[in-house]
Design goal:
2 domains; mainly alpha; Arc Repressor Mutant, subunit A; globular; single chain
């Protein structure tokens, strides 16, 4: 039997669940404290200081693992400079693998997808933390291999794909949690199909203007 969770860990778990389910801006510190089963309203301030700090702590639990896997895949992709698929896999595969690890990882993906849409408005500390996932480097590599798409369309497609990848991976993992395999592709087919869809979206023909 494992050691009981610390107050800090219980607060982090409560924050992760609430941020993922309700959206970052729709969660109060009081709700985090209550969901964590704590009576002291100042618990978050004691352990973290602010809501931004607890958000960053939720992210920091998972950033290193995502970054390590993506670096491995980027190393392979950079050795194949004309292989669009390898670059797209460096974006997709770390997320799909991560989503299968547990609910905390899936919550992180949902929170990260939300942050990706507002990252330019987030505090610098949060932006710096998110860049450590190496996601920007992977998207930059894919961009160099997909010339011809205007910058504004590229950004729009990228934002949509980031949310889509995280949601698709998390939804599939939840089905596997319930052992509902009737409509679930194998791991390899799921990743291959998701990579195909991302490449299709990012390289789709566009109208002039």
């Amino acid at each position: 039997m494992g050691a009981p969770a610390s107050t800090r860990d219980m607060l982090l778990d409560a924050a992760a669940r609430l941020f993922a389910e309700r959206g970052i801006d729709n969660v109060s510190l009081a709700e985090i404290v209550r969901t964590a089963g704590q009576r002291n309203v100042s618990a978050v301030h004691y352990h973290f200081g602010s809501r931004d700090e607890i958000l960053r702590a939720v992210l920091a639990r998972h950033v290193p693992a995502i970054a390590e896997r993506r670096e491995e895949l980027l190393l392979q992709a950079r050795s194949r400079p004309d292989d669009v698929r390898s670059a797209a896999e460096a974006i997709v595969r770390p997320v799909t693998e991560f989503a299968q690890l547990g609910w905390r990882e899936r919550a992180y993906l949902q929170i990260g997808a939300e942050l990706s849409r507002t990252i330019d408005r987030e505090p610098s500390e949060t932006r710096d933390l998110m860049t450590r996932t190496v996601g920007r480097a992977a998207w930059k590599l894919l961009r160099t291999q997909c010339p011809g798409v205007p910058a504004d369309l590229w950004r729009q497609r990228q934002e949509i794909c980031i949310v889509f990848i995280g949601r698709a991976a998390a939804d599939r993992a939840r089905l596997l949690d319930r052992d509902d395999r009737r409509s679930v592709l194998s791991d390899d087919r799921f990743v291959d199909n998701l990579v195909d869809m991302v490449i299709g979206a990012m390289t789709a023909p566009h109208r002039g203007g």
